[in-house]
Design brief:
With 240 residues, this protein is of the alpha+beta class. The protein folds into 2 domains: 129 residues, Jelly Rolls (Sandwich), CATH 2.60.120.10; 89 residues, Winged helix-like DNA-binding domain superfamily/Winged helix DNA-binding domain (Arc Repressor Mutant, subunit A), CATH 1.10.10. The protein is built from 8 helices and 12 strands. The strands form 3 sheets. It has a 4-stranded antiparallel sheet. A 4-stranded antiparallel sheet has the order 2-7-4-5. The protein has a 4-stranded antiparallel sheet with strand order 9-10-12-11. Helix 1 crosses helix 2 and helix 5 crosses helix 8. The longest helix has 27 residues. The protein is globular, with a radius of gyration of 19 Å. 31% of the residues are buried.
Length: 240
């Protein structure tokens, strides 16, 4: 069933870079750019797509990944209310990557010209976008450094800490990561095979840092998790 314009505006309101826009401006966006409805597992961007697009994920979850020698490497898990895409203007690159809906999802696509028009009309959108990209660059640098210098135990702790930061939900005893992440999927995020991830996760459980309940990861001691990951106190300032 198609969403009402009020529902469309409400979803766009949750998108970080669109925060400066009024309800009237969000309504104009909703009317101007139709939604793309994706099935779970549908690949909607591939290395063969050369167009410059900025995607706004309204509902659902998306995985951005690359392939090497038949193995998949997850670059990012995109949550609802997030922007991502292939656009030189924003220094974002999907080149050589696939984008796949992890569940039934709704997204909106904007061209470079359309994004420039929005920024010119509302410069605050450009500022929000700059802050967002700066934070993403920090996280990517952290992951690259981890992959080059740390063992699987520390890298797994680091990616779980980043998942807490991006999507974690507070509980009475710590944090819950609401999405199901298999050991194989976690392995694609840190460059390790499933067996190594299972072994490292078991060690984190033995240390009392994390636990698995109903296929969801619960973090019992976030500070200890970040210590295992080797994060400094300065890096911990971004903790929720």
């Amino acid at each position: 069933m198609p969403m009402s314009i009020e529902e469309e505006v409400q979803l766009l309101r949750s998108v970080d870079i669109l925060e400066p826009l009024s309800d009237e401006e969000l309504e104009e966006l909703a009317r101007r750019y139709p939604d793309d409805h994706l099935r779970a597992g549908e690949i909607f961007y591939s290395p063969y797509d050369t167009s410059e697009k900025l995607f706004i994920l309204k509902r659902g979850r998306v995985r951005v990944y690359t392939t090497t020698d038949g193995r998949e490497f997850t670059q990012a898990i995109v949550e609802a209310g997030t922007v991502f895409g292939e656009m030189a203007l924003t220094a974002q690159r999907l080149q050589g990557a696939y984008a796949q809906a992890m569940e039934a999802s709704i997204l909106m696509a904007m061209s470079r010209e359309e994004l420039e028009r929005v920024i010119l009309q509302k410069p605050e959108v450009g500022l929000h976008l700059a802050h967002l990209l700066s934070e993403r660059l920090r996280r990517q640098e952290t992951r690259l450094e981890d992959a080059n210098t740390k063992d699987v135990h520390a890298r797994l702790a680091g990616i779980i800490a980043l998942l807490v930061e991006s999507e974690g939900v507070r509980t009475i005893t710590g944090y819950r990561i609401p999405a199901h992440h298999t050991h194989e999927r976690l392995g694609t995020m840190i460059g390790a095979n499933r067996v190594a991830v299972t072994r490292a996760f078991g060690l984190l459980q033995d240390e009392g840092v994390v636990e698995l309940r109903r296929r969801l990861i619960y973090v019992r001691d976030l500070e200890a998790l970040r210590r295992v990951a080797g994060y400094s106190e300065e890096e911990e300032e971004g903790t929720p």
